[in-house]
């Protein structure tokens, strides 16, 4: 990643953090609210591969860890793994496929939430598995499908000029969609 | 070429995972926790005003639409609140004598009386910031006299306990959180522990002997046992249902929080620390 891309990614993380903590937390349905954090590594991985996905996931998680009451570093760990796994699993897929982003958003977000809760419980935070998983998975899954496109657009802007083939192909096809 | 790229990618991920695990262990280690807590404190001091600025822009828009669509119910709610305030004023006047007697008795027993303890009134600026914890964030922190361990009361009872305190904000674990445990007393000198089971599940009262006589709506108060985490006499929960399963070593009791956790715009932080 170039220095300019890093600055833009930092700005996108900050904007998403603000939207999450001021708007999304107020949209509680069945005791759960949408979670934008996981969409950052997912979209970064889809646009620029597993390495960028892992790096964006780590820094985005770390930024969220600063304001969440959960153990410091836990979101960074899950974000990093999520970015890497998403990028690796979709590496051989056609980035222009219309179904790829929504499917990756649902599977990635729900999987990341599960991993987050289980790792939290292993680290002694038993309350993290004492939640209504069905409500959390439904709310996070559905909202991720809706919100993955705007987050993807932000991430595409942040990673523009990286020269990555996947990024360029995706940008071209997405610009047609938008 | 592709191989070296793959090994660089793997190395990057390994470094990031190790870094994350190091941060987690720093945070969970009692000796180095203050380091991560300090970083969080500084970040919160920077972040809180920025977030408040965003809310100051968004909230009036939301309030405008909410007010326009719910004007009738807001007016009815206002009238109901005025009536409640009147009833409470009357009740407060009647209880003056009882409270005076209670204060004297508590002083004789060297027990803290809640209304004699100093409090800091705080506004809730954030609720349930994570899907995995039942917490609220207050607009008062260490600089305002709010510290870790202080009980938080409001909306009719015990709300929770301060678990993180930053310069100008603090995080409160609600009584419904899975990590919350409160020692209680009720009935005829009976004791138990009220356990939070997560925000979407009922709270339970544990360590109550089987076949204990209870009644629905019975209120449980914080106990004053040695090293209790809360001052005595704060309403914690009321009994919703109870039964003793065959062969059980304790009664199975479901309770509801006494505080209305849906109305936490303002709360009182009690400046009280457990007595050793």
Mean pLDDT of chain B: 84
Q: Note the run of SSEs of chain A as H and E.
A: HHHHHHH
Distance between the termini of chain B: 65 Å
Largest contact between protein chains? A-B, 50 and 49 residues
Shape, principal axes of CA atoms of chain A: globular
Q: Uncertain spans of chain A, ≥5 residues at pLDDT below 50?
A: 167-178
Largest sheet: number of strands, sense, barrel closure of chain B: 6 strands, antiparallel, barrel
Can you characterise this structure?
Chain A is mainly α and 178 residues long. Chain A has a single domain (3-170), classed as Orthogonal Bundle (Arp2/3 complex 21 kDa subunit ARPC3), CATH 1.10.1760. In chain A, 70% of the residues lie in helices and 0% in strands. Chain A has seven helices and no strands. In chain B, the strands form two sheets. Chain B has a six-stranded antiparallel barrel with strand order 1-2-5-4-3-12. In chain B, β4 and β5 form a beta hairpin. In chain B, α1 crosses α2. Chain B is globular. The chains are: A mainly alpha (178), B alpha+beta (276).
Quick synopsis:
With 178 residues, chain A is mostly helical. Chain A has seven helices and no strands. At the A-B interface, helix 1, helix 3, helix 4, helix 5 and helix 6 of A face helix 1 and helix 2 of B.
Keywords for this structure?
heterodimer; A: mainly alpha; Arp2/3 complex 21 kDa subunit ARPC3; disordered C terminus; B: 276 residues; Thrombin, subunit H; six-stranded antiparallel barrel; 12 strands; globular
Secondary structure: elements and pairs:
The complex is a heterodimer of chains A (178) and B (276).
Chain A: H1 3-22, H2 39-48, H3 50-65, H4 74-89, H5 100-122, H6 133-158, H7 165-177
Helix pairs in contact in A: 1-3, 1-6, 2-3, 2-4, 2-5, 2-6, 3-4, 4-5, 5-6
Chain B: H1 2-28, H2 33-69, H3 71-108, E1 119-127, E2 135-138, E3 151-154, E4 157-165, E5 170-174, E6 181-186, E7 190-195, E8 203-206, E9 219-222, E10 235-243, E11 252-257, E12 266-270
Antiparallel strand pairs in B: 1-2, 1-12, 2-5, 3-4, 3-12, 4-5, 6-7, 6-9, 7-8, 8-11, 9-10, 10-11
Helix pairs in contact in B: 1-2
